[in-house]
Automatic annotation (TrEMBL):
It comes from Pseudomonas fulva (strain 12-X). PANTHER family: HYDROXYMETHYLPYRIMIDINE_PHOSPHOMETHYLPYRIMIDINE KINASE THI20-RELATED (PTHR20858:SF17), PHOSPHOMETHYLPYRIMIDINE KINASE (PTHR20858). The keyword Transferase applies. This is hydroxymethylpyrimidine kinase. InterPro entries: HMP/HMP-P_kinase_dom (IPR004399), PM/HMP-P_kinase-1 (IPR013749), Ribokinase-like (IPR029056). Its EC number is 2.7.1.49. It is an enzyme of class 2 (transferase). GO terms for biological process: thiamine biosynthetic process; thiamine diphosphate biosynthetic process. GO terms for molecular function: hydroxymethylpyrimidine kinase activity; phosphomethylpyrimidine kinase activity. Pathway: Cofactor biosynthesis; thiamine diphosphate biosynthesis. GO terms for cellular component: cytosol.
Length: 277
């Protein structure tokens, strides 16, 4: 045995600190590290949560665009999720790329094991570069079946248009079409030419909350993943939904303000370190 010269501290079976809230992440893997599960993990670390990442799909992508993807078999995804659920108290669930109707049904099977646990649905239907991450029927299945068990969905406006089947619809028009399916809907802006970004939280009771932030130059890879993961983390910590949305939007904007460009394409949010002053 190698002697490293370290003091022989007595072992203790007592926990040194309370466990952080566990967030089960069902998302795809992005090898560029900008989006997907790495974005989930980093954003949740910044919220002082523990990410439990279960892979739903493998992708071939970089910071420019996605070129291919493969959805994992249902049994593999169920095995990953059930291993986490049997071992840890899951405080929230975050959905990212699903990629197939079968994976939508798989999520429903997983949520049957987690009654009452908040679910943040990020309907990842397009990569940042515009490439499709599933057939059109995936969005339909999300709206018709998955929204019913979701606490909130966080589409950007192009995704909201796909989900609402309104190719030219405004955020208000999309919300009107989607709110019968889900109680809370956050439609994020930033896809037009306006000088400010308008993010709109719609509630089924008819109320609406608007959150405005300054537009930043450039385009970003993984901003939606960052937002949804942060929101799931805030809900896992017990923050109220409207407050959690505001916190998640503020944090995400700061990660974009400090973003890096590690490749030839989009900027990647700088989710860590924790100090964004």
């Amino acid at each position: 045995m190698i002697d490293f010269g370290l003091p022989d501290y007595p072992r203790s079976t007592a926990r040194l600190a309370p466990s952080r809230p566990v967030v089960l992440c069902l998302s795809g893997h992005d090898p560029s590290g900008g989006a997907g599960l790495q974005a989930d993990i980093e954003a949740l670390l910044a919220q002082c949560c523990h990410a439990a990442p279960a892979v739903t799909a493998l992708t071939v992508q970089d910071t420019v665009d996605v070129s291919d993807f493969r959805v994992l078999d249902r049994d593999w995804v169920l095995a990953q999720a059930h291993a986490v659920i049997a071992d840890m108290p899951v405080a929230a669930v975050k959905l990212g790329m699903l990629g197939s109707v079968e994976m939508v049904d798989t999520v429903l099977m997983i949520m049957d094991k987690l009654p009452g646990v908040p679910l943040v649905c990020d309907p990842v239907l397009r990569a940042g570069g515009g490439g499709a991450l599933g057939k059109e029927d995936v969005g339909f299945a999300m709206r018709e079946r998955l929204f019913a068990v979701s606490t909130i969905a966080t589409p950007n406006l192009p995704e909201a248009r796909i989900l609402a089947e309104l190719p030219e619809g405004s955020a208000d028009q999309c919300a009107e079409k989607l709110l019968p399916y889900i109680e809370h809907l956050l439609i994020t802006g930033g896809h037009g030419d306006e000088s400010e970004v308008h993010n709109r939280l719609y509630l089924r009771d008819g109320s609406r909350h608007d959150f405005t932030c300054a537009r930043l130059p450039g385009s970003y890879h993984g901003s939606g993943c960052t937002l949804a993961s942060t929101l799931a983390g805030r809900l896992a910590l017990g923050q109220d939904l409207i407050g959690a949305v505001k916190t998640a939007l503020d944090y995400t904007w700061r990660t974009l303000r400090d973003a890096e460009q590690p490749g030839r394409g989009q900027f990647v949010p700088r989710r860590l370190p924790l100090d964004f002053s």
